[in-house]
Amino acid sequence: MRGATESGMRGSKVAGSKGVSPTSESFRDDGLSVPRWWRGRCDAGKDTTFSCNKKLIGARFFNAGIQAENFLDQGPPLDKTDLNSARDYDGHGSHTLSTAGGGFVTGASAFGHGSGTAKGGSPRARVASYKACYAPGCSSLDILAAIFAAVADGVQVLSLSLGGPATDYAADLMALGTLYAVNNGVVVVCSAGNSGPQPGSVSNLAPWMLTVAASTMDRDFPAYVTFGNTTIEGRSLSDGTQPARQMISGDKVNAANQAAENSTLCLAGTLDPAKVSGKIVVCTRGVNGRVEKGLVVKQAGGVGMVLCNDASTGDETIADPHFIAAVHCSYSRCRDLFKYLQSTESPVGHITAVDAELGVKPAPVIAYFSSRGPNTITPQILKPDITAPGVDVIAAYSEEVPATDLPFEDRRVPYNMISGTSMACPHVAGVAGLIKAKYPGWSPATIKSAIMTTASTVANDYSQFQDETGGAATPFSYGSGHLNPVPALDPGLVYDTAPFDYANFLCSLKPTQTQSLNLLPVSLPFLLPQIIHFNSNPFKCSLGAPFRPENLNYPSISATCISGSTTVRRRVTNVGAESSTYTVSVVQPAAGVKITVQPSTLSFGRVYEERSFTVKLEVYNPAAAADYVFGSIEWSDGDGNHRVRSPVIATTKCT
To answer: What is the pLDDT of residues 394-406, one digit of tens each?
Structure first.
């Protein structure tokens, strides 16, 4: 993990889990100083060239867990250089850390594309790195140790771009560790996972985590291939070809003793240099890597490549840093190209590369890989919580490793473009840092609420969010909406949640009467009393009326197993003007369930005053409500400066 602190902010952010490149320009310490309250350290280990500064104020690594697991599993020898250093030997760590808290760096680009000023969400933040993942993977024990260390060092925002399969919270060491962090005032931001678009694939499900999905930006990296009188658009990070060159399909350039079905994929060793030399080769996606195909063409003497999807890969294209002039085109667009190749005796064409295109519409669009809800552990808690930019994100990279993970890669770059919910997570962590800097006394739940309730749900063309197919996205894709930093700094009302509330939430999942939470659902007596405690005493589940999970004071509302009707309770805290009145508006689900809010107005006479309300969900069409239905409620003040929105999800289905 890695970290950062904003000037005047009592803590630091932690972003990622694979180390940091201390020489990156994103971590220069221009005009900064180490906060007096900082308790962390710079642990170089056996890496004598590793050092911190007044921007990168801490770096540590944790490897006991992965070494023990590797020994017990009789795994292959671990890389001692990686294992005994806080340095980033993957690229992921520096990328996520600089996205959360990297400083201003002019002229940053990805292979010369998208040039501009790189900066993190909290660019004046101090950062610290807590490395707990290595080439073979991550140990939960190392992650837990890193979280505990970060809290002890004075970290204020944890950005965790990692996760695993969903499991019961009390058996999930990362969930337990982050509950400990939240109980100590640390905001925890996590990635939702890259297992989409499968329903129920979202991870990091605990309600004390702020779980982030990934979506596109209004920036793209287009490239074009022109043939005959036609030009089709694709995507690339490579150069173009001028003038026009001969074009040929991969199935026509097979080497001796190589089948055409292999050469059409541009597999290594399948192309005949005599047929390829000086030409643009059209390759079909599949089997080997996209960038590898271009290298195969280059090694055979080709000058360019058009990479075409087949029917199974459809219209999803990727801007890759190819070794050769190349463009990746969709299946639907490539059909015109294949018709041209088959109908022309001497086909010619050229590839045109352009710089980044801005103002792309619609945006954001939910990334195809972004994991989806519903929450498979507690469906009464909507996950993911929010979406943020996670596609084609340009940020710092470690020059200790090649630019891609391909075995033949030898390029080193200071900045790189990566996609994933790992990239979306630190965007939100950076904004959480800004809010913490402005309101140092706010709790983690208050900051989380400010981010969720001010999120946008409309794309830049004023349409509703779309998923990767062009269809309407749902809150199972984007949670409360897309990150919207400016209104998050002035949310008006917030849903605060105390550690006591989380404890009651856990009790509602496994009632234990007078038994301590350390019996839920496995015995962890050495851990849970430290995580949930009041006045130094372990929390005990109440003997009173059972707590309902859907009544956790969460910024979104989700109710399952509704029979007839159910009522959900919420309370909001005024963090806006001293005297204010908010009125609710309701967007009803398309069918099946009616939403009623009581009272319909909330009046406040002072800052931090609380008011409670109920949301009644009444089933009027059980067949329609058997699937999930989606609506929302929104509180707005009289002058329209504050709009506090919560998605509402309901179903009669019992999961």
So the answer is: 999 999 999 887 8
